Amino acid sequence: xxxLAIRMxxxxxxxxxTVASHAVERLISGLELEIPWVVSATMCVMQDIxxxxxxxxxxxxxxxxxxxxxxxxxxxxxxxxxxxxxxxxLFLTT
Length: 94
Hints:
Elements: H1 2-15, H2 20-31, H3 36-52, H4 57-67, H5 74-93
């Protein structure tokens, strides 16, 4: 049920751009709990938010990096890798 709530926060952020930054703040606060399934679900949702709002990555990437060691499931690991991979591509091309 809580994983569904995390996903819904992400969907609201994507469908209502005016609340996207507030939704990202709420998701970041979930990362601070350091509960593996919460961090994993948050990473998956953040991946979707980054696709729509790439400018949100500046404030979120440091938080995601701090939470990488907590993730246990494969979906969360893949989702957490994607933003770092994309950012490294951006820095290599500039």
